[in-house]
Write a structure and sequence with these properties.
single chain, 2 domains, alpha/beta, 232 residues
């Protein structure tokens, strides 16, 4: 099972909560690393690979929202926000900010374990999404799905796992409009929102824009998104 080999980062300024969550996850067969604040969490992420992050919202210094923003600048590792605030606006803020899930304290150990297992599966499915052993190529872009390598105008493009899966899905049907719900199914295994798709399209465009190719991914208002190469 994924849980037997997964490494989870638990970020919370409350030592007692870190200890309880660590105990629950380790009993579920996971490896756990902990951090007492956002800055320590970023150091752990930059130093190695984790499969999911449990991130407390209310922390001194760099709070959960700021930490999430910085995490999303460099990786799309699945993130679940932990908070004592059970409010719809907070949940919406978490999802729009790039979080994958939201858990309100106090939480039951079995629920927490099930949510983390789902996070890990979701993250790994993103890596497998749109995987075929072929190559997409046009005048600007080459997507080598076998090697998971993307080059734009001959320069390798650095993409996160989710960004790669999104681009691979779009180029697999280049020129065709793919609705958000189709992309959610293919890239997020059905576990995302239209706002999250919009967020990742924006991130992908920013990376394409470095090579003056951001217009290659088009928004078709009210329908979805389409990959269409810009003129080379």
């Amino acid at each position: 099972m994924a849980a037997e080999t997964s490494q989870i980062l638990v970020v919370d300024d409350d030592e007692s909560i870190r200890e309880v969550v660590q105990l629950v996850l380790e009993r579920g067969g996971m490896r756990v690393r902990t951090a007492e604040d956002g800055r320590a969490a970023l150091k752990v992420l930059f130093a190695g690979t984790v499969d999911a992050v449990l991130l407390d919202v209310d922390m001194p210094g760099l709070d959960g929202w700021q930490t999430l923003e910085r995490i999303r600048e460099v990786t799309d590792v699945p993130v679940c926000m932990l908070t004592s605030e059970d409010a719809e606006l907070a949940k919406v803020r978490a999802l729009r900010g790039g979080a994958d899930d939201y858990v309100v304290k106090p939480f039951g150990p079995q629920e927490l374990l099930a949510r983390v297992e789902a996070l890990v599966r979701r993250g790994r499915s993103a890596g497998a999404a749109a995987e075929t052993v072929d190559v997409y190529e046009d005048d600007l872009l080459v997507v080598d799905r076998e090697q998971r390598l993307v080059t734009l105008r001959g320069t390798e493009l650095s993409l996160t796992r989710r960004e790669y899966a999104l681009l691979a899905a779009l180029t697999s049907e280049a020129g065709r409009v793919l609705p958000s719900d189709v992309l959610i199914e293919r890239v997020w295994d059905g576990m995302a929102t239209a706002d999250q798709v919009k967020l990742y399209v924006s991130r992908l465009r920013r990376k394409l824009a470095v090579h003056d190719a951001d217009t290659a991914v088009e928004t078709v208002r009210g329908i979805g998104y389409r990959y269409r190469p810009a003129s080379s």
